[in-house]
Amino acid sequence: MAKVIMIQGTMSNAGKSLLAAGLCRIFKQDGYRAAPFKSQNMALNSFITEEGLEMGRAQVMQAEAAKIKPMVCMNPILLKPTNHMGSQVIVNGEVLGNMRAKDYFAYKKQLIPDIKKAFRKLEEFADIIVIEGAGSPAEINLKENDIVNMGMAEMVDAPVLLVGDIDRGGVFAQLLGTLMLLEEKEKSRVKGLIINKFRGDKSILDPGIVMLEEKGKIPVTGVIPYMELSLEDEDSLTERFSKKEAACIDLAVIRYPRISNFTDFNVFEQTDGVSVRYVTSVKELGRPDLVFLPGSKNTMSDLTWMRQNGLEAAVKKLAEDIPVFGICGGYQMLGHQISDPAEVEEGGTMRGMELLPVVTVLKEEKRRRQVSGVINEVRGALSALSGQPYDGYEIHMGETRIIGDGQAAEYADKGEKNTAVCADGANVFGSYIHGLFDKGDTAAAVVKALAKRKGISVENGVFEDYRTFKEKQYDKLADTMREYLNMEEIYGMLREARLE
Fold this sequence. Notes:
- The protein has 500 residues and is of the alpha/beta class.
- A hairpin with a 7-residue loop joins strand 19 and strand 20 (348-351).
- The protein has 15 helices and 25 strands.
- Strands 15-13-16-18-25-24-23 form a seven-stranded mixed sheet. It has a six-stranded parallel sheet with strand order 2-9-1-10-11-12, sandwiched between helices. It has a four-stranded mixed sheet with strand order 3-6-7-8.
- Helices cover 30% and strands 29% of the residues.
- It starts with a strand and ends with a helix.
């Protein structure tokens, strides 16, 4: 029986995902087989495992930190919001169906056997399982039949570390208020408090820590400083969406309402002189060096949004002079037509942006698989992609067909020809492959091609394989947490966990 520890937060984006990843890396460094677990994740950033199953990206990031391959049992339930009232429900990597929030709330108790089965499977090889909660355990309207916070902790008898975010203010009220709203049996599970994202002189904070421990009757296990890290975060509250200044090489990502898998562009953020800006209006868009249209959970609705706020017209105008690249849903938008006969999204047929010679038919069955290969010849502004290797995955509910004289750089996978990159021969490109730019120097090739078009040099820039870069980030995270967390207390919690 694996030892367990759970990280819960006073709110969303308190830092649970990163701290769980940091603990996974620390335990791995100390010689243990660590694994992450989150019973229910709500996110539009997802991943496809080797088996073709879908799971949340946060647990993939944590698995990377633990140096193990991602498995769907690490995240048995994934909710992907389709609108403000409902989500696509994915159980054990397979689509169960779309549910309204109210219906899912009534149904979720039936998923407890799936959660327990997934956890038992993870226990088959893990010495330590680091469990992540969701939101806050003190959401009293959601506590009935809870399966992701204290309900999960009780299911596997896990000690809890409660994390508060001081950067957003009111951390003492966050922590004490959360403890006050917990039942006594729940509060008894909380073995330590963590103050996260602290900036400044800790000695100024010390009197508050003394009072916090006196009033809460629970020790403060650590005060973690604000860390400048480039790792994946919660898609709903990511700081990546904050406004940024354009750099020498300026990449603009259209941030439509149901943007998904924007992790495709994280690789570009590591390079000096490159900005990745997420834009929601024509004014914010300006005149970048390249425009990305990312994935979308509702392609037709998000294209309508672009059409209504003028971004479609602005992007089409820019495409006369600069590269435009669509991934997944963005690729579908760039085509001539999107049809939805099965009413997967909006139903009916709508005109696309008419920038790529393709048409898409949305289908009920989701295509999920990992892919790898080398991009064949690409012509036009991004010809530098020719010959670049990639490891990625496809996850979409549409079938896209090239029409007319469209040019496609193809690859063969299991004897089947597939399109790696589709292009109009000049400035417009599209692909279904998530992670297309992550491997080797593919991202660097794109940046250098854009720099050459501007007549500037980026040869002195730091270009590093993204996976190597992330490994350094995980080590930096673990080193910082070791310095500011009382790891002796945490190992003590593990020793006391699940003694029976």
